[in-house]
Amino acid sequence: MGELGKQCRNQFRLECFLLSHRNPRRFVQYQCGNQPLYLVWRVFWALYHTAWIIVTGVRADQWAGPDRSQYTKWFIFLTDWAYLCLTIATIADAMVTTYIHFKRMDIRKGAAASLPWYLRADWCLTTTAHVVSVVTSAAYWGLVYSGDEVTAVDIETHVINSVYVILNVCVTGMPIRILHFWFPTLFGLTYSLFSLFYHLAGGTNHNENPYIYPALDWRKPGTAILYCAIVTFVVTPILHGILFGIHCLKVLISRQFICCIAGPELEDIKMDQIS
């Protein structure tokens, strides 16, 4: 457990607020290597989430009813913001991995020593999407769900999304930084402000109530601010920390059980730190 503690301590450095890393190959392979199969993994999930984001729009009648004028309110819900972010992240993952697979042999061979801008952007986007997906699932089942019938879209956007996130954290080589909690926190703050401005503009939800969610009823500003603050500044960092813990455990297991790792991949794991 000393290695795990060391990795955790190393995360609390000022540089870890940023998006620097000295081993770009970690971002385009599984934790135990195998780059070609990793490309298949990325493309599959990009197609999967793209298909489901389309379904959430096509089946808007499941939450909006027959009134098609309400369908455009898809864009006001945190669930859809989070799932759209996750979809964009998986598409970016697939595009970046494909580009590096065919055009950046230096990264594939471990010869590159710094992250190009597109890997930095992908890292930021993926970190944000992972955390807000888990936060959205927790908020939905804890604050929104009222015992109504659960649809396939509900399961996909509030269960399978988080299962994917945990699975992705467990098997891929992309690092997680504990001090990157501010990415998803900024996302949560942005949505909180959006819900306030939407209310001030006279916006309503699909049931014509003057709020998006009951917990974000800005006619009761004290309650709305409390919910926003707890979810954004408490729940979000905690869940980010849990994902970071899963990542640390994954790295520890990879180092302890090196029988599954070839020489170059093992060296990659040892380099799993900032430059």
Automatic annotation (TrEMBL):
It holds the Pfam family Rost. Signal peptide: none annotated. This is Protein rolling stone. The chain crosses the membrane at residues 81-102, 123-143, 155-174, 181-201, 224-246. GO terms for cellular component: membrane. Keywords: Membrane, Transmembrane, Transmembrane helix. PANTHER family: MYND-TYPE DOMAIN-CONTAINING PROTEIN, OS02G0130600 PROTEIN-RELATED. It comes from Dreissena polymorpha. InterPro entries: Rost.
